[in-house]
What we know:
By secondary structure, this protein is mainly alpha-helical. It has a single domain, classed as Tetratricopeptide repeat domain (Serine Threonine Protein Phosphatase 5, Tetratricopeptide repeat), CATH 1.25.40.10. Helices cover 58% and strands 0% of the residues. The protein is built from 13 helices and no strands. Helix 3 runs antiparallel to helix 7 and helix 9 packs antiparallel against helix 10.
Amino acid sequence: MKLRAEDVLANGTSRHKLQIDMERQIQIAKDLLAQKKFLEAAKRCQQTLDSLPKDGLLPDPELFTIFAQAVYNMEVQNSGNLFGDALLAGDDGSGSESESEPESDVSNGEEGNENGQTEIPNSRMFQFDQEEEDLTGDVDSGDSEDSGEGSEEEEENVEKEEERLALHELANFSPANEYDDEIEDVSQLRKSGFHIYFENDLYENALDLLAQALMLLGRPTADGQSLTENSRLRIGDVYILMGDIEREAEMFSRAIHHYLKGLGYYKTLKPAEQVTEKVIQAEFLVCDALRWVDQVPAKDKLKRFKHAKALLEKHMTTRPKDSELQQARLAQIQDDIDEVQENQQHGSKRPLSQPTTSIGFPALEKPLGDFNDLSQLVKKKPRRH
């Protein structure tokens, strides 16, 4: 049955109205996010997504990123984690905004943090240098009559080597050369029931929302098309945001994984000041998360820290306007270098369960500019309908 001309015109007009309304709702949600009204921003996104027709206009990916940032910051406010204090730049700690966020059904983030700490997944990660090195060089090789200790050392060395190989694989990742297997097909996109993202673990919910943003952003590749510069920039931004959430939840290996994926996308972009800033930030974030991952050998950490230090020093000679921020980052990386070298001689003194806040993290309540792969990394994904 052929559609009449007036029906086609009516459909086009309806889609146009939906698009305009969606853009208006996105702007309202952005404003609420900037005001730290996280619950209101999240509800605005949820209601907009639930109101869209199930067969027709696809959501704007930015709805998912704003939604993710909002529910993430709701969890940060509830948990009061140290990293959250660093991410919520400008927050005086008074908690005045909590009056508008009475949620009591969110889960306690501490349980997830313990899991992220003690069960670091063997995901693809990063190794800066390609050369083979002796992994046992940093291990005390004194003769021991206790066969149990020897067995533990062997297991530790095997684990470190697996981590090194995984890191090396991700270090060479580039979306220009290989398929990004973390971006699911858009057919997996949730169509309704977005209220579930206010329940259970909000960190995992935020990551799942970002995974759906990536489905939409990576859709051209499923059709055999290349991603535009803007799409690659936006995908890189989403990966960095995923890393920030995982770092907050003390899932440091996963955070490094996504920081490096974001970095891989940034490196495919044409040189520009904005791109350089994003590359520098991503390199710094990798280092900040890397210091907490015990499975990565000290030699590899040291190389990465020195690499980032050299980049920062070079950047500061050409971009003096933000030298204060870069000086703070540089000082922190130098502290990391000193600590690794000290630990190589005397052993680690800093407990992993007590991370310090760090310099120069993006405030996650700030909406992404233009706009902006998860899929497998979320343990308990809400089921999509």
